[in-house]
Amino acid sequence: xxxxxxxxxxxxxxxxxxxxxxxxxxxxxxxxxxxxxxxxxxxxxxxxxxxxxxxxxxxxxxxxxxxxxxxxxxxxxxxxxxxxxxxxxxxxxxxxxxxxxxxxxxxxxxxxxxxxxxxxxxxxxxxxxxxxxxxxxxxxxxxxxxxxxxxxxxxxxxxxxxxxxxxxxxxxxxxxxxxxxxxxxxxxxxxxxxxxxxxxxxxxxxxxxxxxxxxxxx
Length: 218
Hints:
CATH topology of the largest domain: Arc Repressor Mutant, subunit A
Strand content: 5-15%
Order of helices and strands: HHHHEEHHHHEHHEEH
Number of domains: 2
CATH architecture of the largest domain: Orthogonal Bundle
Strand order of the largest sheet: 3-5-4
Low-confidence stretches: 96-105
């Protein structure tokens, strides 16, 4: 299950794919339409669509020689892909993104003051907390045991304190974990206050997925 979460998170940690998802949220689109709107080569758009299809965030239908893509998961709402796709569709619909006013994708990426860029950056940042299996192990362990010291996590993950520190730094920066110092000891715990509603919802989807996996084994 964690491997699926990692693949989904890596699919979202991409500005072009977030742009594609936002455009598909307004209705079915062909790869050619997406490429022209985003100012990207058709081959690049096709590769991004393939990634989104493989993780179950979008669907495709064929009509004659044409392929049409839409922002709907082929999986039902009880799956992590289905749940994530439905949430993203609602999120992007409720916060409309207009890309046609910009001449190309790099322009959209670089203008930090636009609603589109701000939204994409937040989704991107929240997603990157879940792009590594070891960070998922840390979050799941803290969810079960509430707190953990550096040595606990070093043993759990079979990694050096330096490598652990890099992973924890990423989780702390993204607001998922708090670090408390007790003398020379660092104790980590989940942050009850999410950095943004997007960070909170993404973690909720991950935790529900874990809980479902546990319930199926009981």
